[in-house]
Design a protein that fits this description.
Elements lengths: L21 E7 L6 E4 L2 E2 L1 E6 L2 E7 L7 E8 L3 E8 L6 E4 L13 H18 L20 E3 L4 E4 L2 E2 L6 E4 L5 E3 L4 E9 L3 E7 L4 E11 L6 E2 L4 E5 L9 E8 L2 E3 L10
Parallel strand pairs: 8-10
Antiparallel strand pairs: 1-5, 2-3, 2-6, 4-5, 6-7, 9-12, 10-11, 12-19, 13-18, 14-15, 14-17, 15-16, 16-18, 16-19, 19-20
The structure holds zinc ion.
The site of zinc ion has 5 residues, from loops.
């Protein structure tokens, strides 16, 4: 089944130009298909009304503060500036015991597996479909409480690791996970750190990921609607207990998923 692209898709996110946030930049054009780029990476462009367009720029957690520039391409090339402002994220210390210790310092066999999985995961995060596949704000994938917010500076058994690039919801094993927006399943698989994972493409470089799942209930290439069950909560991969790790990538950049729910910082 082929789902047509949405003509006037619009995700009404708030301008949040912080590391891990979304800068919203408005512009006008008569061009039917304007494009925008940040550091050469294509950006999410939405048509608001008439000549009014809007660019959504995902800002890396490690981005330096200060003035940044995007390029808009219509009949010519124009530059638009925005300012990245400070956001402090707290620290989180996690202890992995017994069998789970392999996730702190993986052995050689695990390292080979990690290396072979890396390009698969990274190309799924880099998918850019020309058309938006969803419309409107996202809905929560599960009802559980948030156990780890986005952006935490993480330490595993005392060792600094990458910050938390998603949002964790607690839940019992087997709890259904619902698609927060329409999209296409672009990756389904079992991975070392992520465990059982599903990646959804919402178009124009907006990708959502669901990891540590117990089970996945969708197939690669399948189109799904907002609210469809895509899998269940589990504790596979580098996980200390059953929960859903929900990640959002915009222009290949992990951003705070709560911004797409319309929740403000
Ligand atoms: Zn997480």
């Amino acid at each position: 089944m082929l789902i047509p692209a949405i003509a006037l898709a619009n995700i009404p996110v708030k301008n949040t130009p912080i590391p891990g946030g979304i800068a919203v930049i408005d512009f006008e054009t008569n061009h039917a298909n304007p494009k925008a780029f940040y550091n050469k990476v294509p950006l999410y462009v939405q048509h608001i009304k008439d000549q009014h367009y809007q660019v959504l720029v995902g800002i890396p957690l490690m981005e330096k503060l200060g003035k940044k520039t995007i390029k808009v391409q219509d009949f010519s090339t124009r530059l638009f500036d925005f300012e990245v402002t400070e956001q402090s994220y707290s620290e989180q210390h996690i202890t992995l015991k017994g069998k789970k210790k392999k996730y702190v310092n993986p052995n050689l066999a695990h390292m080979d597996r990690i290396k072979s999985e890396r390009p698969v995961l990274s190309s799924a995060r880099k998918i850019f479909s020309d058309n938006a596949l969803s419309n409107g704000l996202f809905t929560r994938p599960v009802d559980g409480v948030t156990t780890s917010p986005f952006g935490l500076k993480r330490f595993y058994n005392g060792e600094a690791r990458r910050p938390h690039t998603g949002l964790d919801y607690a839940g019992n094993i087997g709890t259904p996970i619902k698609a927060p927006a329409d999209g296409k399943v672009v990756l389904v698989g079992k991975f070392f750190f992520n465990g059982n994972a599903v990646f959804l493409d919402h178009g124009q470089g907006l990708i959502s990921v669901y990891i540590h799942m117990n089970d996945y209930l969708v197939k690669q290439g399948q189109f799904i609607k907002q609210g469809d069950t895509i899998g269940t909560i589990g504790q596979t991969g580098r996980s200390t207990g059953p929960h859903l790790h929900w990640g959002i990538y915009l222009n290949q950049t992990a951003i705070d998923p709560s911004l797409l729910l319309g929740e403000s910082k």
